[in-house]
Amino acid sequence: MNITCFSTALFALAFGLVGNAALAAVPAPQDVPYQGTLQIKVDATDLARRIFRVHEVVPAQPGPLTLLYPQWLPGNHSPTGPIDKLAGLKISANGQPLAWKRDPLNVYAFHVEVPAGATALDVEFQYLTPQSKAQGRVVMTPEMLNLQWNAVSLYPAGHNANRIKAQAAVTYPPGWQAATALEVAATNGNTVSYQPIDYDDLVDSPVYAGKYFKRVDLAPGASTPVHLNIVADDPKYLEISPEQLQVHRNLVQQMYKMYGAHHYDHYDFLFSLSDKMSGNGLEHHRSSENGVSPEYFTEWDKNVSSRDLLPHEFNHSWNGKYRRGADLATPSFNVPMSDTLLWVYEGQTQFWGYVMSARAGLWNGQQTRDVLAYAAATYDQGRPGLASWRSVQDTTNDPIIARRSPLPYRNYQSSEDYYVAGALIWLDVDGKLRELSGNKHTIDDFGKAFFGMANGQWDVNPYTFADVVKTLNDIQPFDWTKYLRERLDGHVSLIGGIASHGWKLVYTDKPSAVVKAAESHRGFADLTYSLGLTVGKTGDIGDVLWDGPAFKAGVSPGMQVVAVNGKAFSSDNLKEAITAAGKDKSAPVQLLVKNFDEYQTLNVDYHAGLKYPHLERVMGTADHLGALLKAR
Ligand SMILES: [Zn+2]
After folding, report:
1. Alpha-carbon span 209 to 313, nearest angstrom
2. Are 285 and 458 in contact (CB under 8 A)?
């Protein structure tokens, strides 16, 4: 007996662990095929109770086996597999129940001993989907459902996820229609069986199904089909005008013109228009999950801010799914990810989401500039934390740190700023490429060179920071490492791309149409750049700008504004008070606030009027922004 065995035995005795299953380590994934095909059957008919019922057959050989519930989810970039909602786990072989043991150091792993004579395990469990948004994303309603395979399957440890074959089948509510990137093998009544596929691709191929469904061809006549599959709360939301259809078709063509290649054999947008099912934006290789409010088509003008969602998620098929940061390209769903390259993955996707919205005609030039002004203001004045203590690079850790939970001081803490700050860095790169090359090279060249190779291939093609720099250098020699690292790690201004495109950021007392739409959509007044806060219709304060005028007066995000200058709160009378105090330096902005059960009067010393961001043309310079946003 060597000392290691001896101490392990002592440990087992001390903690009362007995039996091989309890002591087995979780086998690391290996690049070897798993023998046999997982059979995953999901009953998705219990809409009223919002339960997915799973029966899975896992081919197995006698001896110890560890089953994993996917933990590290691609697209979430975080260990957020919803294991708290897995219940009722029962494992059996040849009709005999087996004891399973959850690994106490890895709660996503279940150890079981496969008995002699068994060739497979029967695994049953339920995935109890959220009954309210407070419990997580609502994914089952009377009219639609969103099934993600990572939530309704276990897979054997010890193998890379692309070396495990799986065959899935779903029983849907009667009369419903389903859309997914999976190919249908057979339909029997309400049960649809899908073609066998690698387990990692299965997890990458979720389903949207619904009572009210419409499938729209976005690439008519193309050899590689692209469809928009829509589920809605009510059939009336499925009405699409010819102009709306056209701009969505333009999106596909504009992407192809820029990249020159695509990385799927067919692509399916899964699109929910719902107030009941939670919104979503989640990328996949051959599909994407997109969820917005029901009136996306029917109240087109009110939903400007959600129109870059489809361009964003579509772009991820190239950036994020096909080309992926090497430290994100993990072999299975239970290996930790590092998110260091999300400023490319999400940042450049955010950038192309804006640009392609404009090129396709989903946004007009003014709307795009309003969105860019809002983004630029955020990194001009709206993120004091990035100016003082954090870097954009450090925010790439936020999917793991904050997991999108609400934050007390969002602007000071910063969170996931690699999206929009990343987009501004890429705008800056475009300006630099134009400047250095005498307008010969642009970001389109980078898009094509970095993402547009190997048409039709969709095996993950990983990259490193050095690869990004090399591609930029091949297009236009420059010290790109220094240029990017200054912006990612330092506190260099991130909005240089506005000026290099012939525009400047200004603040006026009138909100842009995009800010107005966002205010009415989210039900708050955005006074970030004046008083330094956002406030809801009932006076509930959202974010308070760190060290801003309201912050200095003692206002905090936990408070409610009850009255302004002695009159009951409304966002209009607050705005009037700000305007009056801007004209008359002796006029007050006096807030009566409620904090728990205490009332307090706070005087905000602010006399510069309302301020909202806009872009203004710099005359005498070339309009590179106009050139960037123009349809190809
Ligand atoms: Zn994204």
Report:
1. 19
2. yes
How far is the C-alpha of 470 from the C-alpha of 472, rounded, in Å? 5
Under a CB-based contact definition with an 8 Å cutoff, are residues 460 and 198 in contact?
A: no
Centre of ligand 1 from the C-alpha of residue 127, in Å: 26
Pairing of strands 177-180, 144-147: unpaired
E strand or H helix that includes residue 617: strand 612-617
Is residue 13's pLDDT more than 50? no
CA of 350 to the centre of ligand 1 (A): 7
Give 224 Cα–ligand 1 centroid separation in angstroms.
Answer: 23
Q: What is the pLDDT of residue 20?
A: 46
- Is residue 206 very low, low, confident or very high in pLDDT (cuts 50, 70, 90)? very high
What spacing in Å lies between the alpha carbon of 315 and ligand 1's midpoint? 8
Contact 432, 478 (CB under 8 A): yes
Q: How remote is the CA of residue 347 from the centroid of ligand 1, in Å?
A: 8
* DSSP secondary structure letter of residue 303: G
Q: How far is the CA of 269 from the centre of ligand 1 (A)?
A: 14
Give CA–CA dist 422/420, Å, rounded. Answer: 5
Radius of gyration of the chain (CA): 27
Share of the chain above pLDDT 70, in %: 96
CA 519 to ligand 1 center in whole angstroms: 23
Give 158 Cα–ligand 1 centroid separation in angstroms: 30
**With the C-alpha atoms ordered 615, 356, 200, 209, is the resulting torsion angle positive or negative?**
positive
Best CA proximity match to 372, nearest among 363, 361, 385: 363
Whole-number Å distance, alpha carbon 73 to ligand 1 midpoint, is: 13
pLDDT digits (tens, 9 = 90+) for 212-235: 999 999 999 999 999 999 999 999
Cβ-contact 219, 226 below 8 angstroms: yes
3-state secondary structure 229-283: EEEECCHHHHCCCHHHHHHHHHHHHHHHHHHCCCCCCCEEEEEEECCCCCCEEEE
CA 78 / ligand 1 centre spacing (Å): 13
**pLDDT tens per residue, range 70-92:** 999 999 999 999 999 999 999 99
Tokens encoding 164? 């495990």
CA 125 to centroid of ligand 1, rounded, Å: 31
Q: How far apart are CA 215 and CA 180, in angstroms?
A: 12
* Interatomic CA distance for residues 534 and 521, integer angstroms: 14
Q: How far apart are CA 73 and CA 497, in angstroms?
A: 33
Q: How far is the CA of 349 from the centre of ligand 1 (A)?
A: 6
Determine the Cα–Cα distance for residues 165 and 182; give it in Å rounded to an integer: 13
Using an 8 Å Cβ cutoff, are 38 and 54 in contact?
no
- 316 CA distance to ligand 1 middle (Å): 7
Please classify residue 301 by burial: count the beta carbons closer than 10 Å to its beta carbon, then call 0-12 exposed, 13-18 middle and 19+ buried: exposed
C-alpha 421 to ligand 1 mean position (Å): 13
Spatial CA neighbour of 265 closest among 220, 225, 231, 237: 225
Q: Do the beta carbons of residue 352 and residue 311 sit within 8 Å?
A: yes
The alpha carbon of 573 and the centre of ligand 1 are apart by a number of angstroms equal to: 38
182: its two tokens: 């999976």
